[in-house]
């Protein structure tokens, strides 16, 4: 196993997309409780870009102060088990699997090792590698926010800001699945896409400002972190909640203030830092929702490993629709 080599994306410093390089290096060997996975597809996400740049700065407390602790980026993946450690019994070579490595990163490579009892599940038969690789970005984050954090109930009103991105396309569908009335906010070119995903109402942000329309929502899920809690308060019900997966010092201050004063709340949740058992349960639920035909994966572009700089540059442009994929071992 030690003789196995692989291509991998590496970043030895923080910076723009140009810090990413493709290198040949030894493939990892699985520990007794791990499986070695041949990666077929991995997602390239907005969060990957933030980790690559080392911004916001306080994120480096976990990522590495001066440079990334884990030089190979990427967390979500889909692939096949190549080898299993001596203590692994539930998986065997050839099994199709998907999941994420959380703070272990390292999925933008031809091989990765993952604990067999980690955030790892067998793939549903109808799910492609490209689709499965996205599940631990937009879908799992959106399900966490809408179900676990907001505890969204049938009949409640939710607005999804950034409804055409990875989180947004999943959030629109999952909110409908949970029985909510859904309003999506996106650009003109994505109105049809968001409506096709089940949104009851779609707002083109270039034409209308949802905070100025007089309509109020039980939850505003700002998937892109573009509108502040202060800006959104007038569009929230008296006990409404602003949800965002994008942490900033401003949001941190708003969370602390709203936790003590007033009935409207600002809430952040780091989905990837939840216990692995909870993440695995969320992933299992997503697989069930997919099997029931209630979740479609939107893929914008696919790139080979060698075009990782181009992939990050496109994601950083802020214009992607749905998901961007690294097609690695297909």
Number of helices: 10
CATH topology of the largest domain: Quinone Oxidoreductase, Chain A, domain 1
Number of strands: 15
Q: What is the H level of CATH, i.e. the homologous superfamily of the largest domain?
A: Medium-chain alcohol dehydrogenases, catalytic domain
Helix content: 25-40%
Low-confidence stretches: none
Strand content: 25-35%
What is the succession of H and E elements? EEEHHEEEEHHEHEHEEHEHEHEHE
Tally of discrete structural domains: 2
Class of the largest domain in CATH?
Alpha Beta
* Main sheet makeup: 7 strands, mixed
C-alpha termini separation: 21 Å
Mean pLDDT: 95
**Class per helix and strand makeup:** alpha/beta
Q: Which architecture of the largest domain would the CATH scheme give at its second level? A: Alpha-Beta Complex
Notes on the protein architecture:
The protein is of the alpha/beta class. The chain folds into 2 domains: about 160 residues, Medium-chain alcohol dehydrogenases, catalytic domain (Quinone Oxidoreductase, Chain A, domain 1), CATH 3.90.180; about 140 residues, Rossmann fold (3-Layer(aba) Sandwich), CATH 3.40.50. Helices cover about 25% and strands about 25% of the residues. The protein is built from 10 helices and 15 strands. The strands form 3 sheets. Strands 3, 4, 5, 6, 7, 14 and 15 form a 7-stranded mixed β-sheet that branches. A 6-stranded parallel β-sheet has the order 10-9-8-11-12-13. Helix 7 links the parallel strand 11 and strand 12. Helix 4 crosses helix 5 and helix 4 packs across helix 9. The chain starts with a strand and ends with a strand.
């Amino acid at each position: 196993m030690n003789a196995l080599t692989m291509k991998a994306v590496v970043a030895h410093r923080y910076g723009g997309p140009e810090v990413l390089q493709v290198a040949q290096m030894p493939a990892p060997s699985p520990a007794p409780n791990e499986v070695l996975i041949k990666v077929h597809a991995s997602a390239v996400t907005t969060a990957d870009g933030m980790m690559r740049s080392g911004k916001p700065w306080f994120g480096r407390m976990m990522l590495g102060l001066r440079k990334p602790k884990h030089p190979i980026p990427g967390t979500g993946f889909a692939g096949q088990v190549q080898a299993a450690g001596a203590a692994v019994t539930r998986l065997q070579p050839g099994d199709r699997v998907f999941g994420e490595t959380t703070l272990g990163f390292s999925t933008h490579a031809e091989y990765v090792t993952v604990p067999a009892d980690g955030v790892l599940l067998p793939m549903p038969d109808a799910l492609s590698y490209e689709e499965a690789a996205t599940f631990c970005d937009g879908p799992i984050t959106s399900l966490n926010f809408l179900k676990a954090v907001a505890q969204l109930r049938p009949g409640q009103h939710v607005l999804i800001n950034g409804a055409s991105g990875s989180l947004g396309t999943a959030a629109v569908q999952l909110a409908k699945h949970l029985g909510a009335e859904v309003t999506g906010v996106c650009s003109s070119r994505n109105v049809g896409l968001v409506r096709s995903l089940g949104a009851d109402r779609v707002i083109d942000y270039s034409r209308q400002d949802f905070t100025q329309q007089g309509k109020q929502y039980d939850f505003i899920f700002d998937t892109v972190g573009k509108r502040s809690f202060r800006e959104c308060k007038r569009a929230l019900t008296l006990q409404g909640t602003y949800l965002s997966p994008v942490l900033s010092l401003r949001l941190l201050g708003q969370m602390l203030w709203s936790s003590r004063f007033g009935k409207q709340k600002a809430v952040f949740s780091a989905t990837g830092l939840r216990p692995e058992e909870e993440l695995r349960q969320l992933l299992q639920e997503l697989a069930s929702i997919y099997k029931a035909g209630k979740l479609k994966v939107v893929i914008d572009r696919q790139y080979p490993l060698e075009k990782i700089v181009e992939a990050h540059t496109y994601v950083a442009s802020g214009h992607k629709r749905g998901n961007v994929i690294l097609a690695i071992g297909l």
